C-alpha cells in the first residue's frame, strides 16, 4: 500500500517577481549601512581596504542568452522569446528567473526533485501533463538533441539560444 509517491519532493511555486537576485548584488564601500532597524540582514563581506567585493562565489562574467518558449502542439499555440543580457554566467535557472522578471509571459512553475534540481512544470501558464504525456523539453542551438543537465545544473554559454519546447511523448501505442 503506497502512500504519496513523492515524500521528499518539495513543491515550490516560483513566482519570480524580484528584479535582482540578492546573491549577486555587489556592495561597494559607498554603500550605506542600514541604520539599526532590527530587520537588517547581516552585512555582506567587505574588504578592509574598502575595495568592493563580490558576495557571491558562483557568479561568472556577464553573458547574454536568448530564451525561447514554444508550444505548437496544444491550443492556444505560442512562441515567446526574450533576451537576457549582461547577467552573470551561472545556472540556467537564474537566466530563467531574469526572463520571468522582464517578461511576465516567462513566469514559470518548477518542482524540486532533490539532487536533480528543479524541473519545469509550466511556462506561460501551460503545464506539463502526465494525462496528455506532455512536458517542457529543453534544448539549445548547440545542444539540439536536448540539454544533458537540468535547469539547476546547466550553465549556458554567452550568446546561447535556449529553447523550451512543449513536447508530447505520446505515440500511437501509448496514447
Ligand atoms: C490535454 O490536452 C487537451 C487538448 O489539447 C487540453 O484541452 C487539456 O487541457 C489537456 N489536459 C491537461 C491536464 O493539460
Ligand atoms: C518543437 O516541438 C514541435 C512539436 O513537437 C516540433 O515540431 C518542433 O520541431 C520542435 N522544435 C524544436 C526546435 O525542437
From TrEMBL:
UniProt feature coiled coil, ranges: none
Residue ranges, annotated region (Disordered): 28-47
Entries under InterPro entries matching the protein: Cobalamin_Transport
Keywords from the UniProt entry: Signal
Signal sequence bounds: 1-23
Official protein name in the record: Gastric intrinsic factor
Species per Swiss-Prot/TrEMBL record: Plakobranchus ocellatus
Lineage: Eukaryota, Metazoa, Spiralia, Lophotrochozoa, Mollusca
Amino acid at each position: 500500500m503506497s502512500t504519496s509517491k513523492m515524500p521528499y519532493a518539495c513543491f515550490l511555486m516560483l513566482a519570480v517577481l524580484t528584479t535582482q537576485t540578492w546573491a549577486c548584488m555587489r556592495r561597494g564601500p559607498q554603500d550605506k549601512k542600514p541604520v539599526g532597524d532590527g530587520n537588517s540582514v547581516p552585512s555582506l563581506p567587505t574588504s578592509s581596504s574598502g575595495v568592493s567585493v563580490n558576495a557571491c562565489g558562483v557568479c561568472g562574467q556577464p553573458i547574454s542568452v536568448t530564451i525561447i518558449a514554444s508550444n505548437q502542439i496544444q491550443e492556444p499555440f505560442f512562441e515567446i522569446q526574450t533576451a537576457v543580457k549582461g547577467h552573470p554566467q551561472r545556472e540556467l535557472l537564474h537566466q530563467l528567473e531574469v526572463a520571468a522578471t522582464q517578461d511576465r509571459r516567462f513566469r514559470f512553475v518548477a518542482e524540486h526533485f532533490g539532487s536533480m534540481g528543479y524541473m519545469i512544470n509550466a511556462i506561460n501558464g501551460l503545464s506539463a501533463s502526465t494525462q496528455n504525456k506532455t512536458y517542457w523539453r529543453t534544448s539549445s542551438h548547440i545542444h539540439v538533441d536536448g540539454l544533458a543537465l537540468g535547469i539547476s545544473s546547466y550553465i549556458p554559454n554567452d550568446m546561447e539560444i535556449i529553447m523550451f519546447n512543449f513536447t508530447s511523448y505520446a505515440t500511437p501505442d501509448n496514447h
